[in-house]
Amino acid sequence: MDQYDELYKVVLVGDPGVGKTNLLAYFTATEEEMAMDAETNASKIFSAVRKPTIGVEFGTKIITHPNGKRIKAQIWDTAGQERYRAITSSHYRRAAGALVVYDVTSKATFENAQCHWLKELRNSADSNSTLLSCLMLVGNKIDLVAADNASTIVPPEDHEAAAKAEGVMAMRASAKTGENVVAAFEQLIIEVYNQDKNRTAPVATESATPLVDLNAKVPTKKKSCCNA
């Protein structure tokens, strides 16, 4: 059994078809599966015809924090269809972080990521959860960006502006080629760990009682004329 120091739950949310399952598959894949297929120019784990996620599915992976701690991430891939909303939203409450995924070739999924998915996560999160400060906006399918479809894609500057306005982390990636996929997951998971440890670290407080110098001379109180 793999040893780890911390365990956190992370959720993947977004519209159907934005590539959440392929992102998870790549991140949890073996090095052999991550390798590129020369014929398809895609990682061996990538599938362009994956069946829609029913309810939720999950995978796990252990990463190492820069401080040496081993962090196990339990990553839940949630269905984007409306009929599974009651099932998937229940998983947000115990989540420590989330990747909000959209398709960079679909402005509608970009709008939904901001107006629906981020809002739903924030409404479902516990008030003391790291989820509120550990959210990442991920633009997937950057391998499809080309000059001939420039009018339909979400440009990088719009992505960055939206992430800044929402106060979340940002990453553009490709589940097909693997570009930035591992970086996105690891950056989020490490931030979850950092936020969790900062939240639970003891806070140093100043003593309310002033220190007394035991060697100092105590002045003798003079008698008043009334006591003479």
UniProtKB/TrEMBL annotation:
PANTHER family: DRAB11-RELATED. It comes from Thraustotheca clavata. It holds the Pfam family Ras. It comes from the Eukaryota. GO terms for molecular function: GTP binding; GTPase activity. SMART domains: RAB, RAS, RHO. Belongs to the small GTPase superfamily. Rab family. NCBIfam families: small_GTP (TIGR00231). This is Rab11/RabA-family small GTPase. PROSITE patterns: RAB (PS51419), RAS (PS51421), RHO (PS51420).
